[in-house]
Automatic annotation (TrEMBL):
Reaction catalysis annotation: UDP-alpha-D-glucose + 2 NAD(+) + H2O = UDP-alpha-D-glucuronate + 2 NADH + 3 H(+)
The protein's name in its UniProt record: UDP-glucose 6-dehydrogenase
Gene (name only): aglM
Residue positions of the active site: C272 (nucleophile)
UniProt domain UDP-glucose/GDP-mannose dehydrogenase C-terminal: residue ranges: 324-423
Pfam families per record: UDPG_MGDP_dh (PF00984), UDPG_MGDP_dh_C (PF03720), UDPG_MGDP_dh_N (PF03721)
Domain of life according to the entry: Archaea
SMART domains per UniProt: UDPG_MGDP_dh_C
């Protein structure tokens, strides 16, 4: 198939490269010239495990990138994979998606295309595709939705740090198409090579566009709430001297609960959980419903960094002291610092008068854009050297191997927000929820 993808971010770049690697011809459209140049040079525009080799393997052949929308009318199917950031009230800002939809339509009009399918991968509130984005494409293209323009929704369930692996071995595929057989057939055809490459069946959910949009939000809301419940239980366990990890290991054996997303700690961040939770809360309130449980999940998450710093206060007066922050990305495997729990931790340390030195294997430059005047180290050992204390915010594997490096600290005090460091003699160690 000929596939065009609008947006070369974490979702768009990985989707396009994976489709190309599966044998389709994929063209990525993005306004960022550096990202476009990187893809055409055979380099991944973002840090994402597994993406570099797929871009290198397909670039210039089955994978191309452009700042113009010319590839759109040449393709069988166009995926909209652009950002939908939050407004101040938590609702989604659809302006980028609307602009992309309009430019997609204009490209179809300029090429005098008489039939096309556009599928929304961006995370949007139910009704956005049918009421806003589909009509935006249709109006600009001079096509009719359901007749000459086929509109669908195919939400992504790709986690940063494992986006390629998640695409290539999904738990499910959701095709929203409002009974339009043309877009349904194209989606099934696009994913057929992926399904054929696996040694097991992938469930396919054929549903309406509104249901597909909501499935994405419901998925993330459930997982975010599960993490916050694990954190709430962990906070209680800490106060009773109970190892919360022993507790969640046991309850995770119950198949009604499951073991995933039960690791308590400093909380969730990134571009999805915070944005999607806020958007769903705002959408519920716009429909005159107060989502108390979901709001509570957000409140628990927002509280975790403060509890981490409270534990530090029990051992160290941070004023005037050097404190190492280990981990700056919101999770291991990515350089993304959006809504990273390191941000409120650094802010709290600065409020206490500490001299903060941060370290992360890949996210330093992105965090430097947030805190340009902070100190950053080239290694965990350099960050710990002479530090009065350290806080662990991201569970990068290399932090589990730290041992003698802690001895370079003035008086080794470690507050671990991710249960990645081993408790040992000679180390004052506090786990956030254990």
């Amino acid at each position: 198939m000929e596939i065009s993808v609008i947006g070369a971010g974490y979702v768009g770049a990985s989707v396009a490269a994976c489709f190309a690697d599966l044998g389709h011809d994929a063209a990525v459209v993005d306004i960022d010239e550096e990202r476009v140049a990187a893809i055409n040079d055979g380099r991944s525009p973002i840090h994402e495990p597994g993406l570099d080799e797929r871009v290198a393997r397909t670039a210039g052949d089955r994978l191309v990138a452009s700042t113009a929308y010319d590839p759109v009318p040449e393709s069988d199917l166009t995926f909209l994979a652009v950002q939908t950031p939050s407004n101040e009230d938590g609702s989604i800002d659809t302006s980028v998606a609307e602009a992309a939809a309009e430019m997609t339509g204009e490209a179809l009009a300029d090429a005098d295309a008489d039939d096309h399918a556009v599928v929304v991968k961006s995370t949007v509130i139910p009704g956005t595709t049918a009421d806003l984005l589909g009509p935006a494409v249709a109006d600009a293209a001079g096509l009719t939705v359901g007749e000459t323009l086929h509109v669908g929704v195919n939400p992504e369930f790709q986690r940063e740090g494992t986006a390629v692996a998640d695409f290539l071995d999904p738990d499910k595929l959701v095709f929203g198409h409002d009974d339009d057989p043309a877009v349904a057939d194209l989606l099934h055809e696009a994913y057929e090579p992926l399904r054929a490459a696996l040694d097991h069946e992938v469930p396919v959910v054929d549903t309406g566009t509104r249901e597909a949009e909501m499935i994405k939000y419901a998925n993330n809301a459930f997982l975010a709430s599960k993490v916050s419940l694990a954190n709430e239980l962990g906070n209680i366990c800490k106060r009773y001297g109970v190892d919360s990890y022993e507790v969640t290991r046991a309850i995770g054996l119950d198949d009604r609960i499951g073991a995933s997303f039960l690791r308590s700690g400093v909380g969730w961040g990134g571009s999805c959980f915070p944005k999607d939770a806020d958007a769903l809360i705002a959408a519920a309130r716009a429909a005159d419903y107060e989502p108390e449980l979901l709001q509570a999940a957000v409140n628990v998450n927002d509280r975790q960094p403060g509890l981490l710093l409270d534990l530090l206060d029990e051992h160290v007066d941070a004023a005037g002291e050097r404190v190492a922050v280990l981990g700056l990305s919101f999770k291991p495997g990515t350089d993304d610092v959006r809504n990273s729990r390191a941000i409120p931790v650094i802010e709290g340390l600065r409020e206490r008068g500490a001299t903060v030195v941060g370290y992360d294997p890949v996210a330093t430059e992105n965090m430097r854009a947030v805190f340009p005047d902070a100190e950053y180290a080239d290694s965990a050992a350099a960050a710990l050297d002479g530090a009065r204390a350290a806080v662990v915010v991201t569970d990068w594997d290399e932090f589990a191997a730290l041992d003698a490096e802690f001895d370079a600290m003035a008086e080794p005090v470690v507050v671990d927000g991710r249960r990645i460091v081993e408790r040992r003699e000679g180390l004052t160690y506090e786990g956030l929820t254990w």
